[in-house]
């Protein structure tokens, strides 16, 4: 008895009209838009799993950044006396901390999103792109309380919303999320094959805190590196650009800073040109889009091997 090759089913006219797809096919990088219902379910699942058995629950979204802020403020602001040379240093510091916290959570969670959902990836078909995107949305849920604290702190320091601040914030969020999701999808694909990748990601997040102007002013870096290629590389770091945009959005127009600048104080607060509030935002956006495209391509080409690699 000879085996016959399986025949490929041809969809009917009604199925084609409804957008029928063969099993295993999906919309690629458009899956987060096409499969919004599944994406919401994954976000809810991630939140339930994260706080299962937790007493404080979402309160950890306030506790962890608060402790981080206090440690950095005492070490850098009090011991190294940066608070004396930087008006509204608490706002300056926290506006940078929320950036690196969001970067770290999106990057780390996206990297582990495929391996952490190995049972789902290997047993049933769910578009793989949904896992890193769900990680990003969970990180945004944790980001909102930190943003609220930052806004309250800025208001207490005489900050008032303005079109400049709003545009700077939106640009910063756009660059940060596009850049981090690109990195996250790239490392998620690599981590499925090589588990060492997630350890490298932890190191990158730790180093990123110190290689962007979160704890110190950028003019300190300029004094040390001005005129060298390292100064331009430092400025072109997308995280540096995002942190500076957040400084423009929440710190630059607080009353202590405005009063200080009115006396022609020489410290810098922007990139490239001291009078330009948005600095090198265009470079940050271009780099972020390029990283996102590369990460998406690598993820798309790797996703069919995830079930075997897990």
From TrEMBL:
Domain ABC transmembrane type-2: 56-302
The UniProt record lists the keyword Signal: no
Any one Pfam family match given in the protein's UniProt record, by short name: ABC2_membrane
Membrane topology: Multi-pass membrane protein
Membrane-spanning parts: 62-82, 89-110, 130-156, 168-194, 200-218, 230-251, 279-299
Keywords: Cell inner membrane, Cell membrane, Membrane, Transmembrane, Transmembrane helix, Transport
InterPro entries: ABC2_TM, ABC2_TM_bact-type
Statement: the UniProt record of this protein carries the keyword Acyltransferase: no
Subcellular location: Cell inner membrane; Cell membrane
Principal location class: membrane
Protein family per UniProt: Belongs to the ABC-2 integral membrane protein family.
Protein name per Swiss-Prot or TrEMBL: Transport permease protein
Source organism (scientific name): Brachybacterium rhamnosum
């Amino acid at each position: 008895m000879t085996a016959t090759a399986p025949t490929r089913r041809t969809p009917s006219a009604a199925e084609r009209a409804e957008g029928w797809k063969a099993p295993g096919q999906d919309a690629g990088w458009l899956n987060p838009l096409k499969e919004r219902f599944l994406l919401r379910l994954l976000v809810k699942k991630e939140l339930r799993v994260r706080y299962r058995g937790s007493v404080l629950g979402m309160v950890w979204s306030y506790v962890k950044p608060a402790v981080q802020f206090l440690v950095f403020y005492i070490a850098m602001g009090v011991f190294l006396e940066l608070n004396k040379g930087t008006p509204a240093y608490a706002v300056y510091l926290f506006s940078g901390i929320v950036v690196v916290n969001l970067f770290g959570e999106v990057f780390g969670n996206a990297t582990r999103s495929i391996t952490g959902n190995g049972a789902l990836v290997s047993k049933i078909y769910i578009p793989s792109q949904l896992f890193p995107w769900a990680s990003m949305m969970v990180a945004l849920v944790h980001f909102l309380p930190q943003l609220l604290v930052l806004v309250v702190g800025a208001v207490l320091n005489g900050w008032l919303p303005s079109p400049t601040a709003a545009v700077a914030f939106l640009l910063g969020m756009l660059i940060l999320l596009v850049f981090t999701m690109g990195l996250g999808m790239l490392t998620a694909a690599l981590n499925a094959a090589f588990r060492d990748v997630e350890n490298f990601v932890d190191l990158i997040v730790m180093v990123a805190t110190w290689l962007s102007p979160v704890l110190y002013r950028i003019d300190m870096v300029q004094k040390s590196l001005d005129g060298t290629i390292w100064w331009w590389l430092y400025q072109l770091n997308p995280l540096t650009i995002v942190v500076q945009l957040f400084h423009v959005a929440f710190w630059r127009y607080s009353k202590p800073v405005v009063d200080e600048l009115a006396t022609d104080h020489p410290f810098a607060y922007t990139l490239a040109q001291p009078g330009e509030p948005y600095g090198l935002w265009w470079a940050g956006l271009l780099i972020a889009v390029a990283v996102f495209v590369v990460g998406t391509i690598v993820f798309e080409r790797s996703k069919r091997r995830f079930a075997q690699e897990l």
